[in-house]
């Protein structure tokens, strides 16, 4: 057999082996799969990296390993994925299961042994390959609502060896889907001060006429210069009403491929750049996402599979253009939007005039602004583009108007400690005004002669003081009670100013594992963790806020094992 044929045959066997492994993945749940979130969906400041699988609004459903492998990582945090499990498979894929309620007995025992050794609830572990092997179909965990989850569901991911999230639908994790994507709004943009659309230099919304169940016709666009299109669209699947993300977007100009993006893989490092593809001012104003069908010069995303130039369209005199946008889901359900464009130049066109202020933030250098007594610092490349900032300050208030521009990184706010009475300095922090005049702690620290905070938010900042210790109260038991028949004890805790930083619990002087649910404000101890000796026991719980204020709760209870 010729060497070339041998080479091709060898690679065919490799591909067959890979697809044989990935196509045979088991479903992670035994119930029919319905999605409340799809891969690559546009979220606040990130792309969604997996599938959000509905669990009938229940917790505690068995979660199965989708293939043979071993537990390679366990991460438990108060936010994020909450309780999360990572399994590495022979194919090189890693499956991720997030927002879990709990793990199987073997994994749970492994985790608790490590938590007690480190005396902390939040923990990240990397077991050896031989420690926690699993077989395809094993129950490895139970679904829940932990972490930054807004309701019970299973977050399921697949990652490759580079830790890039992959679209699970390409690996056999499928749902029933006969529904076409939905186009909500279509927009056209003049992209510079010399461009225009329909006698304006501003973004305009185009009316759509439905020609049939798959094709829409937009109003004619009379344009000059460089223009771009933006869409507000979503997808859904059978039997659900969730407005989920699109899988694929294509655009042709006069029948020729011009722009295409596909949600198959991305890197976590680039996910934070999601705001570069959005009409960011529109999102801030309406909390709805228009996705640009052109690529800004500062957009580093790698989701594009076809791109002529940057995806914008340069209108030439005397020419007509037929623009077609195709939206599709993973099951190839599609719709098309047809946009007739004609070259036309109006003599007078209104453009937005840039507002200049004394505070110019240049992208490539450090920008420091004195707003006495406050100061504000933007380090190089904190922003994606240069802009003018609106800012003002008084002794007690720093006001930074939102420039309607996304940031890459946080910027620095400083306030001199000399303006604060020495007795109050340990309790001082910078806060941001939110809704209903409520203030929120901004993560910060004290250094040299100032209090400092890093933030990506804009708004009104004030100095606040927190000398009040957190609140602690028992929930399911009373002091001096007999808890022999109790499976767990639970306490309520909260801190209305700077927020809770740390907590610890002890029974008879021995550290116990308290599980903190920040959404409910509860601390829970499971009596199955350790057997208690004797009948009378002393419980002590200590909670500390971010300013170091500490509250201690002590009581006696009775229990026989």
SSE blueprint:
Layout: H1 3-23, E1 35-37, E2 42-43, E3 46-47, E4 51-54, E5 62-64, E6 69-76, E7 83-88, E8 94-103, H2 105-118, E9 123-125, E10 133-134, E11 139-143, E12 153-159, E13 165-166, E14 182-190, E15 196-197, E16 204-206, E17 208-210, E18 215-218, E19 221-234, E20 248-253, E21 256-262, H3 268-271, H4 280-286, E22 291-292, E23 304-307, E24 313-315, E25 320-328, E26 334-343, E27 359-361, E28 367-371, E29 374-378, E30 387-389, E31 391-393, E32 397-400, E33 411-416, E34 428-433, E35 439-441, E36 444-447, E37 450-455, E38 459-465, E39 471-474, E40 488-494, E41 500-507, E42 510-512, E43 515-517, E44 522-526, E45 536-545, E46 550-558
Would you identify the regions where 5 or more consecutive residues have pLDDT less than 50?
A: 1-22
**Overall pLDDT confidence:** 93
The helix count comes to 4
Helix coverage percent: under 10%
Rg for CA atoms: 28 Å
* Structural domain tally: 4
What's the CATH topology label of the largest domain? Immunoglobulin-like
Distance between the termini: 74 Å
Backbone shape = flat
Secondary-structure class: mainly beta
Gross CATH architecture of the largest domain: Sandwich
The biggest beta sheet reads:
13 strands, mixed
Strand percentage: 35-45%
Question: What do these coordinates show?
Answer:
With 561 residues, this protein is mainly beta. The protein has four domains: 22-171, Glucose Permease (Domain IIA) (Distorted Sandwich); 182-343, Immunoglobulin-like (Sandwich); 359-465, Sandwich (Chondroitinase Ac, Chain A, domain 3); 471-558, Immunoglobulin-like, CATH 2.60.40.1220. 8% of the residues lie in helices and 42% in strands. It contains four helices and 46 strands. Strands 14, 15, 16, 17, 18, 19, 20, 21, 22, 23, 24, 25 and 26 form a 13-stranded mixed β-sheet that branches. Strands 1, 4, 5, 6, 7, 8, 9, 10, 11, 12 and 13 form an eleven-stranded antiparallel β-sheet that branches. It is flat, with a radius of gyration of 28 Å. The model is unreliable at 1-22 (pLDDT under 50).
